[in-house]
# Entry
Amino acid sequence: DAKTTQPNSMESNEEEPVHLPCNHSTISGTDYIHWYRQLPSQGPEYVIHGLTSNVNNRMASLAIAEDRKSSTLILHRATLRDAAVYYCILTLRIQGAQKLVFGQGTRLTINP
Amino acid sequence: DAGITQSPRHKVTETGTPVTLRCHQTENHRYMYWYRQDPGHGLRLIHYSYGVKDTDKGEVSDGYSVSRSKTEDFLLTLESATSSQTSVYFCAISESGRRQVYEQYFGPGTRLTVT
# Structure
């Protein structure tokens, strides 16, 4: 399975933008890039996904490098509720199921 | 929020005893997954199901079995619990269809302690 590399931790201030990087240099042409986050004492929560083009949704934006070897999750205006562990994942489809391989993720701290 | 419940939410059991965890969904989603999460680690896939009675192994399936006799229920069984199976267990579901990718929705987790 292709691997992802993320910083162990990042810190930002409330109401400021946050850019969370992810390297995936061994990505294959059919791998989708997913981001999930996990708030304390909860199950993971889907954030966003993309294949080649940049993507936006109500939670975040995903910027994907032209060579697809890296991507950046952008939280446009962080709130205290965004403090969580963020996982960058490459997904592999097996019989239609999507196998998520979680790494260690980035622990994001938001300062008030 | 997706309708996923897990039971029990907390369990303490002794080494060597059988344990069954239940995941129940009200979304009629085709795919269901069991993960475990240990301190300082991300989630690891144990087993998954792609339909009633259709299951397959994930990356850490040794010591675990699963069953899915109805769309809404996915059971994870530890035949003889060991201390290394002390963990938080998460169930997830996802749809199927024409799209290439569907997000997974996770349950609240079951904290299992094997003494």
Q: What stands out?
A: Chain B touches chain A at residues 30-31, 33, 35, 40-45, 48, 50, 56, 58-59, 90, 92, 94, 96, 100-109 (CB under 8 Å). The longest strand of chain B covers residues 43-51. Chain B is about 0% helix and 55% strand. The two ends of chain B are 34 Å apart (CA to CA).
